[in-house]
Structure formats: C-alpha cells, structure tokens
Amino acid sequence: GQQLNQSPQSMFIQEGEDVSMNCTSSSIFNTWLWYKQDPGEGPVLLIALYKAGELTSNGRLTAQFGITRKDSFLNISASIPSDVGIYFCAGQDNNAGNMLTFGGGTRLMVKP
Amino acid sequence: GAGVSQSPSNKVTEKGKDVELRCDPISGHTALYWYRQSLGQGLEFLIYFQGNSAPDKSGLPSDRFSAERTGGSVSTLTIQRTQQEDSAVYLCASNPQSLINYGYTFGSGTRLTVV
After folding, report:
1. How far is residue A84's CA from residue A36's CA, in Å, rounded to a whole number?
2. Residue B109 and residue A43: Cβ atoms within 8 Å?
3. Candidate from B4, B99, B108 with C-beta closest to A98
4. Contact call for B56 and A42, based on CB within 8 A
5. Percent of chain A, pLDDT > 70?
6. Most B-contacting residue of A45, A46, A100 (CB-CB within 10 A), to test interface
7. Which of A20, A45, B98, B108 is 20 to 30 A from residue A36's alpha carbon, by CA?
8. Cα angle vertex A106, ends A104, A108, to 5°?
9. Residues B36-43: what's their mean pLDDT?
C-alpha cells in the first residue's frame, strides 16, 4: 500500500526561527494536505494543495505540492510558541476513493 | 452540530472489558472515518463509512473491533475484550462529499486507557 515518509520526526527550535518539514511518497497523490494537532485535540486542516507544482501560503505557513506528485513540504516562518504541536501531511489518491494516507507526524517544540 | 463530537473524551477500562466510543459527525456529512493514534504515533486508519455503502473495514486490527453507523449519522466503535495495546486516542472525522479534496474535519478524540 501507499506509504508516506514524513521528516523530521521532531524539531526543537528557538522562537523566531523558520521551520521546514517534508513528506515523500512511494506513489503519486492527487491532493496533498497539511494538518496541525494541538495537545488533546484532533488534527485541524492548515493547507490543501491540488496541483503539481502548486505553492500555497496561509499566513506564516507555505506549502508546496511537488512536481513529481510524490512529495510536499511545509515551511513555517518566524515561529512563535503557539506553533507547538504535531504536524501531519496527508495524501489523497483519486484511484483509492476518498481515503487519506497520513504521514507519521512532525512534533514541533518552540523555545521562547 | 458545529463540529464533530466524540464521547467520552476519556475512558479508563479494565483489561477484558468491552468499550463503546461514540462519534457525532457534522450534520449532512456523508463520509465518516475512524482513526487510531497511539502515543507519539501517526494516524492509523480503522474504518470508513460512505452514505449507505458497505463500510471499508480494511483497517480494523482484529475481530475484537467493530463499528456501525446508524441512520447515516452517529457512529459507534466497539472494542471487545480490550487489551492494553488498545490504549490510544481514537479519532473520528467526517467529510461532506465523496471527493475528499476539502479535507476531513476531526473530532477531539476519545483517549482510551486499558489497565
């Protein structure tokens, strides 16, 4: 089956630093999604990408859908303490119904 | 409702007991999903309901796990004869249409602890 490799697994950074995380897949996806999970909560959608090469921003967040359709990255600029949480990538394959495959998550810790 | 509601938020049970976890999806959402998140891990797919179609049960880890969705709305995930390895956060999500492009909306989860 499809697998998503997400890296890094965790990051501990200083407030104000930029952050980058990425996901790679063994197969093609039609849609890439990035979620954030706060402690004790369910994941919340941050950004959705629908076209290969697409670059989308949402405030301090920027994500790109890789040209090969097998990868995506998420950047966070000028991190702040509330960015702490677990970030998940997810891919959707139209040929697999509407199931999402999730990466293993990146745990982000921000030091004030 | 305004969001996906799950209950209970926390459940502690003794090994060997049965548990039922409930999910109220967003009104009108035809697709409903159950995922399991073990401590520090990613999201493991369990089961998927879409309208009146037969559910996709391919992610259920054993025959101790089952789920139903009544009237196309509320869903119940049942774990029989719970084991310690069943301890995890069980997340429910729903989606308004057959195309997933708008992403799932997740509930806050039920944290299950088997002692």
Report:
1. 9
2. no
3. B99
4. no
5. 96
6. A100
7. B98
8. 155
9. 85
Q: Which residues on B lie below 8 Å from A107 (Cβ)?
A: 40
The distance of A30 to chain B (nearest Cα, Å) reads: 9
Q: Given pLDDT bands bounded at 50, 70 and 90, which one contains residue A5?
A: very high
User: Does the pLDDT value for residue A1 go beyond 70?
Assistant: no
Contact A31 B100 (CB under 8 A): yes
Give the whole-angstrom CA distance, residue A6 versus residue A61.
17
Tell me the two tokens of residue B90.
């069980």
Cβ–Cβ of B41/A44 closer than 8 Å? no
The distance of B73 to chain A (nearest Cα, Å) reads 18
The SS3 of residue B86 is helix
pLDDT, tens digit, for every residue of B87-97?
999 999 998 76
pLDDT at A8 over 80: yes
CB contact under 8 A, B43 and A88: yes
Mean pLDDT within A89-108:
85
Give the C-alpha separation, A32 to B111, whole Å. 28
From chain B, the residues in CB contact with A38 under 8 A are none
Residue B54 dihedral angles phi and psi, to the nearest 5°: -60, 135
